[in-house]
């Protein structure tokens, strides 16, 4: 019965979203209705789902939502907002534009940005060995590779598909599933990784990368014409920035810090994605002060970070949903 209700709720929510209803409101309403149905039908006791019961079942449904929001906003929500704010600040100071301008030069000679899509998948799969959080890795790649690839001519859908695929193949000694499989098979996890996983995983990842190059190019051509090369050649003056060439490393700082503070370099150092972004922001502020020598101007620029975090929190995507 519970599975049937869940299926009906999914169909109901999906239908409303396809009709351009606001997704957040639809999902919130669906969740509340499911919680209330579960309570009144006796499927579950809402008082057991909350940290502290209100004493009245229907109120506990909203208390459960409050508990969930407090956890999500303090964890995943904070990560998403910080990444969004950092990415906006990188564009505001010209660091993202410098990164795009420098990295676009070899691709302009190749005249095929889709090759970078395949390389991005390989890079993401490699990084997944050291960044075990799929969400964290995805956010880092969205902040670094997404603006780069889209400005070089790849469609947003193609880039998003590649980034979403970076953790499709879960492997490595740090993977929970790998540890469980090795324990079940009574094999050392490192031996399991080297002898059993790698011979299968490497060809699979290479094949997926090749498929992305072919498939994403096909769909981009079918939907908008073969204008990738034209887009790549028309990096206009708006993309040009007067930021120093060394600023191209600033957008990559969170990724570098996550790699350095991992088993790849310093296994004794462990930092979270949130910490990596905050450290990167602090380093960027110091660099900006050395560049402008105006503390008031540099501090005022930090407001862009908080403005973007607020925008990410509100999910201001109404224009996209109306398309």
TrEMBL record:
Pfam family, one: DcuC
GO CC field: plasma membrane
Keyword tRNA-binding set for record: no
Gene Ontology MF term list: C4-dicarboxylate transmembrane transporter activity
InterPro entries xrefs: C4_dicarb_anaerob_car, C4_dicarb_anaerob_car-like
Ranges annotated as spanning the membrane: 28-50, 71-94, 114-141, 198-215, 245-265, 271-290
Compartment(s): Cell membrane
Membrane topology according to the record: Multi-pass membrane protein
Protein name: Anaerobic C4-dicarboxylate transporter DcuC
Family recorded in the similarity comment: Belongs to the DcuC/DcuD transporter (TC 2.A.61) family.
Originating species: Citrobacter freundii
Annotated keywords: Cell membrane, Membrane, Transmembrane, Transmembrane helix, Transport
